[in-house]
Specification:
The complex is a heterotrimer of chains A (about 500), B (about 350) and C (about 325). Chain B is mainly alpha-helical and about 350 residues long. Helices cover about 70% and strands about 5% of the residues of chain B. The interface between B and C is large, with 44 and 46 residues.
Chain lengths: ~500, ~350, ~325
């Protein structure tokens, strides 16, 4: 069975966390001198697989073969010693130290325990020269661009005898030129016989650089493909788990587009350097606008600007025809906006406070500290929403952290509904929750817009986007690529818009 | 130093400039300030503060804090005096004994902080009360040193070198042995920080603990190590304090934690860790000494001003650090958003 | 089922309460006359009353400290603020100012000190320990500067009443503590402040996303804590009938932190328990009084307190507790 050309083989890998099966029977084969892309949407299991491979997590089952021998790394260090090095998206370097130190830290050249700075510098220069870059290695690393930092991290990874190099979303904060420079380095390393695992969500880049592609979905293995033989659209359909033929029929399901309503919120060429290219967006009362695109395409970034979490550095926001600038969530909430963020645990729930307190928080914040919502009213509100949203909790005083993900999400929804917003921004509201809860949330969205609320709906689930949106704005690479309305809204059209490479346009 | 090197070390340059300005101001304004014996005098007066601040620099470099330094000085001072004076122990044994005590205390605090994830300020605050309390439990009054080996009276024992004064050739003056200890510790610390793996790991840990762990650096050993170094330095500072004042006193080092923190921060070490200079700390101590001297020369100024001046200077430098960091964030973009 | 014994407050209170009972029980058997309360000239006297009276400053400060710790911060400057407010009050009284004016000015200065802390922490993002450490040390410098480092004695029956007086046979300081406690409870339970503080301490990011003005919250708790320290400073000064800027409130920051932690409020922030903090303060004072009446030298109290706080924090530490369940923790 063992592939003779295989450098690294993962077979039948499975990994579970309490209550979740993150990976089941996943495989991945990396050959000498190839760049192998690992693709999948959120929750597909890419990062779990990487963590299993690098020893951050222990696998529950399966085996990992490096050069035909079984390995079992228990920590990133051990994986590194075995020849598996990783460069993470959030550049794991020490910002204040010099480039040379960052490359050699922990394995510096010493005599009698004293560091030999000159040799350390030379070693760093040599490591960087291998990647074809020449910079002042005595300079503090944080004074260089993220792109150079990325390369420094790669140089560090290669400084020990690496056989497999894993790049976890290395390009997410690079511009085009920098990406090209990185790719030149990758091709060079590939020629040297290294096996490179490339995790990214930018399709253009996958096709620009990779030889093979392995697709994961929902923690399972979908398949391994030659990049040259897999059309873009097929790749997307594999990632999303939908056959292309299947997509055509779905168009009928979606809700009718609203016509003749005037938008109350307008974004005019609103953008923010480094996170969103200027775009136009309008939303009217009673309308659900879907924001579609892959992860990192600018969906969340748009939402953050509207809710005052990030400030736009160009363009104009208009509310009821008046130009406004939203500088804080407090202000946005005062304008009757609501925001259910993507990262529930960090950005939404107050873990140790009760369901009741989590529900009244936004309303109470709007009213100020003297406008106390009395205890009976709080209980009434909590009971009302627990019933209306079917929140499963033994009682309203239960700390929210003890609830399941879906129920936590409903509590956060209830938090904003209690403050009766005009505009509700939902960022991946159905991620990681069970099907029943998903349907309930969709039903609720329809009901709310029926009552005149506007919803900005962000989701990576195409079917869900198509089914629920009156209008769909498609984003790719931090810019708006098109807006679909009426009959145009279909999974196929969205996919085509996402898949279109720049050269096609 | 070229322009870029200056830019890279703004906090350090700021410190050096402040020190120079204060020094010039004092030398021009006060007669007798610019005399070698006087200058050596106030360096020697604050040698113990310098030693404690050097140890603290390592802790702050990792992003931690040690509030127990003053307490350790008090406990060391009184217990060593007790051992030698009341129990007639040979200083050759007594000194290593208190040093071992200091190391154990530091290890204990470091373990509580690292393994049980207790906040450093809390552990070291409790540590401060513990050692200060113990100092008073041991003895409530100060003890005058009479043992020959530890100073007091003139004697010709070999250990006396610690407290004898050393003539400086050409200049008609001499410096105390304790000041020499200060210089030696400074040199050792300089080498440890710059030329050992441990030293660089300290910087790495303060720069980004998560990355340091992913890079495979020994986080536990380094983190506990800095608290050991800090305690060890404070213990040495306590010994120096005892020798210099020829008197063991449980109250010695009271309130010293702020002086030491101030010296470290004014010296250019970032409170968030990762950036700093041992040499900067020495200059920081020097600045504090000059301020003290100025307040002494200005007869009209009350000595309480020292505390306030140190507090304000510390604040100024912290705000300067914030400013530099904010600027850096803008230029470097979103580096490590958490 | 729905009894008071099931509430989180009771759950947190039972441990300090049990410890207090233990200490009291010890005194019942081994300290003769500990529980004796006498009525002399319309005033209650006895060890227990003495404990209440002496614990008053720490109890009051621990109320403010509870709010600060609930937001995940800490205030080391309370002792210095006590010294400042006491010094100002004594100076003004000695100069013959009217009592209401004296109280207003000295407490006003205390609030200014808190606002200063809040400014550094909330707006300039200086770590709480350092920001308040600056005030801890330079604040005492200010107090000593104000008085020239001297004790400022005074005679003023009205002012002394704050520290020495009796109201309905009970020490006024204890009554004042109770009033402040009730005020804090009302603010916590009958306004939204409690929710905002707990939310900010539990998850600052999520609170901000929900529209809570977390900076304002931080600002307010430091101001409140300093006000409490100011009041405690007045009590201590009035009790001595002199201001002692170098000794007032020394080491009190640890006592207050200790009281709060014993009372069940975690240093990480979040849920807070005002009643627990009071209980913690009383426990500390009872312990101190017991140590003294047993003839153990005073110096030991500091050592004991330091050990108690480390033990209490260890007991609260997840890692520590886990290491006693099943397998050792993988840190």
């Amino acid at each position: 069975m063992a592939d003779a050309t295989a450098l690294l083989q993962l077979r039948g890998i499975s990994k579970g966390f309490p209550g979740v099966k993150a990976l089941s029977d996943v495989q991945l084969t990396i050959r000498r001198g190839e760049i192998h892309s690992l693709m999948g949407e959120n929750g597909a299991g890419k990062s779990t697989l990487i963590k299993v491979l690098t020893g951050v997590y222990r696998r529950d089952g399966g085996e990992i073969l490096l050069n035909g021998t079984s390995i079992d790394a228990r920590s990133p260090e051990e994986a590194q010693r075995l020849g598996i090095s990783t460069v993470y998206q959030e550049v794991n370097l020490i910002p204040h130290l010099s480039v040379a130190e960052n490359i050699c830290l922990g394995r510096q050249t010493t005599t009698l325990g004293f560091l030999k700075w000159k040799e350390i510098r030379q070693r760093a220069e040599k490591a960087l020269a291998r990647l074809g870059i020449e910079i002042d290695v005595t300079e503090t690393v944080s004074n260089y661009s993220i792109a150079i930092q990325q390369l420094v991290a790669i140089a560090r990874a290669l400084d020990i005898d690496a056989k497999v190099l894993i790049l976890d979303e290395p390009t997410s904060s690079l511009d085009e030129k920098e990406v090209e420079a990185l790719f030149t380095v990758l091709r060079k390393l590939k020629a040297e016989g290294l096996g490179i695992v490339f995790v990214t969500h930018f399709l253009d880049q996958v096709y620009a650089v990779s030889d093979r592609i392995t697709v994961l979905r929902n923690g399972t293995y979908v398949g391994e493909y030659e990049a040259a033989l897999l059309p873009r659209l097929q790749l997307i359909s594999k990632m999303m788990g939908k056959e292309l033929s299947e997509l055509e029929m779905k168009a009928a399901d979606r809700v009718a587009t609203k016509a003749g309503v005037t938008p109350f919120l307008k974004l005019k060429q609103v953008g923010r350097k480094g996170s969103l290219k200027p775009l136009d967006l309008e939303i009217a009362a009673g309308e659900i606008v879907g924001l579609s695109g892959l992860l990192g395409s600018g969906r969340t970034e748009t939402a953050r600007i509207v809710f005052g979490l990030d400030r736009a550095d160009c363009g104009e926001l208009q509310l009821d025809g008046k130009a406004i600038s939203i500088t804080s969530p407090r202000q946005a909430s005062g304008l009757k906006f609501g925001f259910c963020p993507e990262d529930r645990k960090v950005q939404a729930i107050i873990p140790n406070l009760s369901v009741r307190e989590n529900i009244v928080l936004a309303l109470q914040a709007n009213r100020g500290w003297m406008g106390y919502v009395s205890r009976p009213t709080q209980i009434q509100l909590a009971d009302k929403f627990i019933k209306a949203l079917n929140i499963k909790t033994p009682n309203p005083e239960q700390p929210i952290r003890l609830l399941s993900g879906g129920n936590q999400q409903k509590v956060i929804l209830a938090r904003w509904l209690a403050s009766n917003p005009r505009l509700l921004i939902l960022d991946e509201p159905t991620r990681g929750i069970d099907v029943g809860a998903k349907l309930e949330i969709e039903k609720l969205m329809a009901q709310l817009t029926g009552e005149g609320m506007a919803i900005l709906f962000i989701s990576s689930d195409l079917e869900e986007t198509v089914r629920n949106s009156h209008r769909v704005v498609v984003l790719r690479d931090r810019q708006k690529v098109c807006e679909l309305r009426g009959e145009e809204i279909s999974e196929k059209n969205i996919m085509h818009a996402i898949a279109a490479s720049d050269s096609d346009q | 130093m070229n322009l870029r090197a200056i830019k890279r070390n703004i906090p350090f340059v700021a410190t050096a400039s402040v020190c120079l300005l204060l020094f010039l101001f004092a030398s021009l304004r006060y007669k007798g300030f610019l005399k070698l014996p006087y200058l050596l005098g106030f360096i020697s007066d604050d040698a113990y503060l310098g030693i404690a601040a050097i140890g603290l620099t390592f802790v702050i470099l990792t992003g931690g804090i040690d509030l127990s330094v003053g307490g350790v000085i008090g406990l060391t001072s009184i217990s060593l005096a007790l051992l030698v004076e009341k129990h007639h122990m040979n200083p050759m044994y007594a000194i290593p004994l208190v040093l071992v005590g200091g190391v154990l205390f530091g290890t204990l605090m470091g373990c509580l902080i690292h393994f049980y994830l207790l906040p450093p300020f809390l552990v070291t605050l409790a540590g401060m009360f513990l050692v200060r309390g113990l100092a008073f439990v041991f003895n409530q009054e100060s003890i005058q040193l009479t043992d020959q080996m530890l100073g007091g009276h003139s004697a010709s024992h070999s250990l006396i070198v610690f407290n004898s004064t050393i003539k400086i050739p050409l200049a008609n003056t001499s410096i105390p042995g304790t000041t020499l200890i200060y210089f030696v510790i400074f040199l050792i610390a300089l080498v440890v920080a710059q030329f050992t793996k441990f030293g660089r790991n300290v910087y790495a840990l303060g720069g980004n603990e998560h990355s340091a762990a992913l890079m495979g650096l020994p986080v536990a050993r380094t983190k506990i190590g800095v608290y050991v170094i800090s305690s060890l330095c404070s213990t040495l500072a306590g010994i120096v304090h005892l020798l210099y004042n020829v008197k063991g006193d449980p109250t010695s080092g009271t309130g010293l934690e702020l002086d030491a923190i101030a010296a470290v921060v004014i010296g250019g070490t970032l409170l968030s860790g990762g950036v700093g200079y041992i040499a900067g700390t020495i200059i920081g101590v020097l600045i504090l000494s000059i301020i003290q001297a100025i307040i002494n020369f200005e007869g009209s100024l009350n000595s309480w001003w020292t505390r306030i001046a140190i507090g304000m200077l510390l604040l100024l430098f912290i705000l300067l650090q914030k400013l530099i960091q904010a600027k850096k964030f803008k230029t470097a973009g979103t580096f490590q958003k958490t | 089922m729905n009894s008071a014994f099931n509430s989180p407050t009771w759950h947190k209170l039972k441990w300090p309460l049990a410890a207090l009972m233990l200490v009291l029980l010890y005194n019942y058997f081994y300290t003769p006359g500990f529980f004796q309360i006498e009525m002399k000239a319309g005033r209650l006297f006895g060890s227990l009353i003495d404990v209440l009276n002496r614990a008053a400053p720490v109890m009051i400060i621990s109320l403010g400290m509870t709010l600060v710790i609930a937001t995940g911060g800490v205030d080391l400057s309370v002792g210095a603020v006590m010294a400042i407010s006491g010094a100002i009050a004594a100076l003004l009284i000695a100069k013959g100012f009217a009592l209401p004016l004296v109280l207003m000015i000295s407490l006003g200065v205390a609030i200014v000190a808190g606002v200063w802390n809040g400014l550094l922490i909330g707006y300039f993002k200086v770590p709480p320990i350092v920001a308040t450490l600056i005030l801890m040390v330079s604040g005492r410098g200010v107090a000593q500067l104000l008085t020239g480092g001297n004790h400022i004695p005074f005679k003023h029956a009205g002012f002394e009443f704050i520290g020495r007086g009796y109201l309905a046979a009970i020490p006024f300081a204890a009554v004042l503590t109770l009033l402040l406690f009730i005020t804090f409870v009302i603010i916590s339970k009958r306004t939204a402040a409690g929710l905002f503080i707990e939310a900010t301490g539990d998850n600052e990011v999520a609170s901000r996303y929900a529209g809570v003005q977390t900076r304002v919250v931080q600002f307010a708790v430091y101001a409140a804590c300093s006000l409490c320290a100011g009041i405690a400073g007045l009590i201590a000064t009035a009790n001595l009938a002199e201001a002692d800027p170098s000794a007032a409130g020394i080491g009190l920051e640890l006592d207050a932190i200790l009281a709060v932690v014993i009372g069940g409020t975690a240093l990480q922030g979040g849920r807070y328990f005002l009643a627990g903090s009071l209980m913690g303060a009383i426990l500390l004072q009872t312990l101190t009084t017991t140590i003294l009446t047993r003839g153990v030298p005073t110096q030991w109290t500091q050592v004991v307190k330091a050990l108690v706080i480390i033990i209490v924090c260890l007991l609260q530490s997840e890692v520590f507790r886990r290491s006693f369940q099943r397998k050792p923790a993988t840190a």
